[in-house]
Amino acid sequence: MYKQLKTTVSKNGNIQKLSRIFQPFNVIPMESQTKQKEKEIHSKSSKLMLELGIIKQSSPGCFNLLPLGIRALEKLTRIADEEMQSIGGQKVEFPTLINEKLWTLSGRVNEVKELFKLKDRHAHSYILGPTHEEIACELLSQSQHSYKDFPLILYQITNKFRDELKPRLGLIRSKQFCMKDMYSFDIDYEKAMETYSIVSDSYENFFNILGIEFHKVKGAAGVMGGSLSHEYHFSAEIGEDTLVRCSHCNHFTNVELVEENICPICKEKNQLIKSKGIEVGHTFFLGDRYSKPFNANFINKTGKNINLQMCCFGLGLTRILAASIETLSTDQEIRWPKPIAPYSVLIIPPKAGSKEEPIANSLLERLYHSLDNIQHVKKDILVDDRTDLTIGRRNIQGKKMGYPFIIVLGNRIKEDPVLFELHDVNGGIQVDLAFEDLLTYINEAYNK
Amino acid sequence: MYKQLKTTVSKNGNIQKLSRIFQPFNVIPMESQTKQKEKEIHSKSSKLMLELGIIKQSSPGCFNLLPLGIRALEKLTRIADEEMQSIGGQKVEFPTLINEKLWTLSGRVNEVKELFKLKDRHAHSYILGPTHEEIACELLSQSQHSYKDFPLILYQITNKFRDELKPRLGLIRSKQFCMKDMYSFDIDYEKAMETYSIVSDSYENFFNILGIEFHKVKGAAGVMGGSLSHEYHFSAEIGEDTLVRCSHCNHFTNVELVEENICPICKEKNQLIKSKGIEVGHTFFLGDRYSKPFNANFINKTGKNINLQMCCFGLGLTRILAASIETLSTDQEIRWPKPIAPYSVLIIPPKAGSKEEPIANSLLERLYHSLDNIQHVKKDILVDDRTDLTIGRRNIQGKKMGYPFIIVLGNRIKEDPVLFELHDVNGGIQVDLAFEDLLTYINEAYNK
């Protein structure tokens, strides 16, 4: 009977079968959950992602991203690409191996403790790029630019490296991580502030698309230099940053910017409640902090050579992936932001040998191809073809994985009209729907 | 008059304007072309790519990929993704930082001279991954697998690192390069050979899509180990590999496999002509060379634990990008494989103040949006909005950049019916076409 499903599937070469996905399960032993050290290393999201074969550790702080993890990360990358390009961001790729001299010139080489350093066979020194202000300025300095060429916004989405003292919480604090880093160049402070504000809006868009509540707070510039910065946080108990929420005006602030328990926004006293946040994005106005030592200049209207005004903008994409799961999941079941779930829809056909099986194949095929014609659902449908398992067991696993929609071909497919069992997993809704209603439901969820 | 174009453009937020692209020109001084050292470092492709702002060197062997370069590389990546996924390849990402112990276990740590090595702050040793057989096997060894789980084909598209003695020829021999590397696992030799053959076919597909003549030759396995390998070469004078072509049977062979001037395919003697090739792909049957030391095993039908049979398959994507340009270009003008040119179509509107300008705007808009409705051309159209330059000058630059199709709104747009000047750059054809004929021409070029 398992063969029947296989036949159906092979007729439609591109039906994606769960049984073929490399997803090694790896139950983290219960007793380890009580050890203090394990508690520090793990979080809800890292445990779920490791357990369910989304990531796998290679060495502390270094992970293999497995097929379901890569699917999610690539979706997140596409959203970031679209947002950055919609405001004129131009994608580039800076080298990972950065000539150490550039960081000596900026003065950061001894300032940043987390630098990975190495030498090549000719004894030239490099660092593995954790951020690329120096490289971006060096690039700009290599050619002449007119004031007409700005604003210029360059960004990349690449792996960055930090020699963390204590890598922890899976992708939330890892040695290698995927970051969207963007560098803007403008001809004066006002123009730079315009760009800063445009990018800030695009960051809000980006987080709104994910649908996760975020808190934007003024930040301390730290090793980046510059005079203005903002941080974007997701709320989570495991967060390393402390935020305070003012129960009077409801605004969040970085605890470092609070003096004498006074809310810096509404000036009320003693209304501040501490909470924890995971920093998922950071924006900085840098002025000429880097453009000056590197001579990243432009020629102004009167022919003068002037330092560019620079901002930089980061989104930690692998961290956002993990922090989203941390924020949305239960202890036992993953929940994804709908736009980045590895698959949008999981279809569960009946168990082999069941009464429903004989009529299920043609229904499955019709359903798959109708769904595959829906925008944003296309190529994003997975069939749990392990028909030796009961529907119930596969449904439990599907919910644990958090596919946003699970469609079960259960016993009501024998009715007239046929009814499908739809689980709207993020919404916590279960409903039996006829074919057209089912398609409408899914379509509206993705194309409102 | 320049403003008029701007207005048109802003009505259509997504019209892509050449003037906004970060493409710093950088003429390589003529005298340097004669220096022997420069000759060794540069090639036709590296000179053109540097000169035309497609890449820019950061340090020897390390490059910034600029916006036009990234567009081409992302197209190439998508083609590789589609081909690998069509044969069941599952995309993953292995860490760049590889625990050195894994390479000690495989015995390769002292064998490969080009390893970048580094230590973290706890004095743990890592290498920067040039290839990931060890990591893939270690990953497999961490979970149990049934014979039913195979074939398993995992691949990644990531940056790799080699501490080259003499980085040269731009992206052809660089310290950091983007590679598609794939690892297959099978339960026995026969199944592994089946997978090897399926992947080999997909490699031929991949190169056929690019449309570049390639030579597949038997290879020497080298440091990879294993008993069978094939290399894929593009012909180019600057190639580092020597191939021989038999003028009797026309087959190519690696010179290392030729004895006594006898063609190993047709056995004819003294018919061999030497030529140079750039290796752009390599496939290996590895057997249990890595699965054995790492215990990458499966449970067979009788419950026995057996070493997996492994193959690995590489495509050097940044090298293919450069080698394609090397193969197709003239000394003065880039030519791209059509599917990976940074933009498919360049539109050149009339010079500001010309007689044609008043009627050009509405034509441009109509043309842009009609082209933008053609599959595989959508979002791939660039307008050279620098209308302070003559059509002739922009046309020369467009050809130098090698956009496959250049459409000039020249003096025949005043005729009835309107005629557009189409330059089919790869085909070396220039023809004046009416609107519908023009669309048909472009559509057929991309959707045959």
Automatic annotation (TrEMBL), chains A, B:
UniProt keyword RNA-binding, yes or no: no
Highest taxon above the source species: Eukaryota
Keyword Aminoacyl-tRNA synthetase in annotation: yes
UniProt keywords, alphabetically: Aminoacyl-tRNA synthetase, ATP-binding, Ligase, Nucleotide-binding, Protein biosynthesis
Domain spans labelled Aminoacyl-transfer RNA synthetases class-II family profile: 69-337
EC id: 6.1.1.15
Enzyme class, spelled out: ligase
Catalytic activity: tRNA(Pro) + L-proline + ATP = L-prolyl-tRNA(Pro) + AMP + diphosphate
Biological process (GO), any one: translation
Any one GO molecular-function label of the UniProt entry: proline-tRNA ligase activity
InterPro entries assigned to the protein according to its UniProt record, in alphabetical order: aa-tRNA-synt_IIb (IPR002314), aa-tRNA-synth_II (IPR006195), aa-tRNA-synth_II/BPL/LPL (IPR045864), Anticodon-bd (IPR004154), Anticodon-bd_dom_sf (IPR036621), Pro-tRNA-ligase_IIa (IPR002316), Pro-tRNA_synthetase (IPR050062), ProRS_core_prok (IPR033730)
Range of residues in the leader sequence: none
Protein name (Swiss-Prot/TrEMBL): Probable proline--tRNA ligase, mitochondrial
Origin species: Cryptolaemus montrouzieri
